[in-house]
Amino acid sequence: MKLAIQINGHPASSMAATTAYQFIKAALRKDHQVILVFFYYDGVFSRLVPAHTEAETAAAVAPPDWAALVSEHGLDLVICSAAAERRGLAALSPAAASDLMRTATPVGTFRAGGLGQWVDACLRCDRFIVFAS
Amino acid sequence: MPVLHLLNHTPRGSESFARCLESMAEGDGLLLIEDAVYAALSGTPSAGELRAVAAARNRCFVLKSDLESRALSVRRLAEGFECVDFAGFVDLVAKYDASISWG
Question: So what's the pLDDT on residue B34?
């Protein structure tokens, strides 16, 4: 089954990213294909959350490790550039990345995109799921 | 076309709960995740409303890890709710034709 995932919640105030991450891992274990993870609304802040600590990893519900999903499963993680700009986040090019962003998720984990990619994924997938804020 | 409805907030302070229940058709499924799991606790008004939904041949599911992370026991669930893990969540998404997130 081909899946498209949309994440709309802020990583600090919503469980959307954590729930979506666990869902994605379970789907991959069942050999489903995740064709797109689209970060929309406050979900765009997922880009700023740094890699989690060892203590958090050991917790019952580990925070998302998006970089690992990209390196291990080649997932396509797209940040809506319009939603990001509306929230004052700088452009996604490595050259424009601030110090904050360099210490957060590795450059290249996410790519900038727009609703076009989401609509395209919805047309190509078998199911799409929205993780609301 | 059977639809899987997703709720992730408690019924208190959220209109999505009522809107979701209103829009459910026979054969649809309901999955409670995150803070919405509180709605399935026995003795709460929301659990009563949800049982009425379940009686109309809808199936009601609760995400197990969200119960556990709130220190809630499966034994506290009202009658008629089924617990699923994330693998079960994936299976539900596959089983129903589409999903709707009410927030």
Answer: 95
Q: From B65, which residue of chain A is nearest by alpha-carbon distance? A: A61
Pairing relationship of beta strands B59-63 and B29-32 according to DSSP bridges: parallel
Task: Check residue A49 and give its pLDDT.
Answer: 73
* CA distances to B28, B44, B56 from A87, in Å: 36, 39, 43
Considering only alpha carbons, which residue of chain A is nearest residue B63?
A19
**Active-site annotation of A, residues:** 80
Q: List the single residue in A32, A60, A129 with the smallest CB-CB distance to B99.
A: A129
CATH class held by domain A2-131:
alpha beta
Contacts of A106 (CB under 8 A, 6+ apart): A67
Query: Quick one: which H or E segment has residue B91?
Result: helix B86-95
Domain ranges of chain B: 3-101
Q: What is the pLDDT of residues A20-50, one digit of tens each?
A: 999 999 999 999 999 999 999 999 998 887 6
The CATH number that domain B3-101 falls under is 3.40.1260.10
Interface contact B68-A60, CB threshold 8 A: yes
Domain ranges of chain A: 2-131
Please write the tens of the pLDDT for every residue from A88-106.
886 555 555 444 444 456 7
**pLDDT, tens digit, for every residue of A61-92?**
678 999 999 999 999 999 999 999 898 886 55
